[in-house]
Amino acid sequence: MRLLCFSGTVAADFCARRVQNDDMSSKLTIWCNAQFPEEAARQLIAGVGEHRLIIDENPTANISAGGLSPTLAEADVAFGQPDANQVIELPSLRWTHLTSAGYTRYDRDDLRSALTARGALLTNSSSVFDEPCAQHLLAFMLAQARQLPQALSEQIRTQAWIYARLRPQTRLLSNQTVLLLGFGAIARRLAELLQPFRLNVVAVRRAPKGDESVPTHPIGELNRLLPGADHIVNTLPSSPSTDGLVDENCFAAMKPGAIFYNIGRGTTVDQAALIRLLESGRLGAAYLDVVDPEPLPADHPLWTTPNCWITPHVGGGHAEEYPRLVAHFIRNLRLFEAGEPLIDRVI
Predict the structure, then answer these.
(1) What is the DSSP letter of 207?
(2) Quick check: bond before 218 cis, omega within 30?
């Protein structure tokens, strides 16, 4: 097997560990196709302990789909982005842990049925990405309230002192209303971060549970709630029920001057409708960390749409991202060994 992403002494440590573990039939075989830097690779090797570790020869970024892997058939546990059809077909695969918060390609009835039938588990890494994504959204909201992009763009373009124009346009977040589309880990953490700003926070989700920290309504009530929102925050994943959900009707229902944010998936938004609303001036601004397609082509109209501010899908990123991904998996591995409930369980 060709070893990618591990190098030097890390590769030597891994090879020694694998030879040692090949005879340990009572231990777990853990397959990984995540593309980790050396520090995180060492952390993974140390964390799996006496279990057998297989590193796939085609490492994959944490939001990319992994391809078919013959070595996955040897595994009890998959860590990374395994092929969804293989997850369904391999009866020996007892637990799959994703290196992403999103799990769209695994959100399938046949996969759920297969895993449920054999008692297998699926977990994701929401606990790794909820904090940076929530902070990214808070940064978006504060930047708009204090008119930071407008001031910085003027600095780059003209170096004009726009005091008289800009100062009256700044706002306080206090007493404004935020509508959260979805109430998963990112939205829950954002609601916590917004508490000191004394905002009114409400949410919609597919199936309210009744234990949410903010008033939460079925997503079918979205258009009724939109006219009262100053900030609409989209954290929805891509799925057949959410793709295209934020459409022309939704944008038309938003109050004039409302601000739209998207850190979920670009496919959930009718981007042509968004562009029209921004160009008309009816929508105050849009802050997008996700778009469709990605990467966004240089000639795409979103780049030059007025009051549209884009970051290149970095909302979940942070300097400790890879060590935290490994630490989250190892924490769940200890729970799996002990037969305890796993963190961020999806199935």
Answers:
(1) S
(2) no
pTM of the model: 0.90
| pLDDT of res. 347 | 96
Query: In 94-207, where do the E strands start and end?
Result: 95-98, 121-123, 177-181, 200-205
Buried b (16+ CB within 10 A) or exposed e, 122-144: bbbbbbbbbbbbbebbbebbebb
Give the list of residues 6+ apart from residue 177 with CB closer than 8 angstroms, or none: 199, 200, 201, 202, 228, 229, 230, 231
Give me the pLDDT at residue 60, please: 87
Predicted confidence (pLDDT) per residue in 288-301, tens digit? 999 999 999 999 99
Q: Are 5 and 41 in contact (CB under 8 A)?
A: yes
Q: Given pLDDT bands bounded at 50, 70 and 90, which one contains residue 1?
A: very low
Measured distance CA(1)–CA(70) in Å, rounded: 11
pLDDT for residue 3 is more than 70: no
Q: How far is CA 126 from CA 43, 57, 189, in A?
A: 20, 26, 11
* Amino acid letter, residue 73: A
- Environment class of residue 216 by beta-carbon count within 10 Å: exposed (0-12), middle (13-18) or buried (19+)? buried
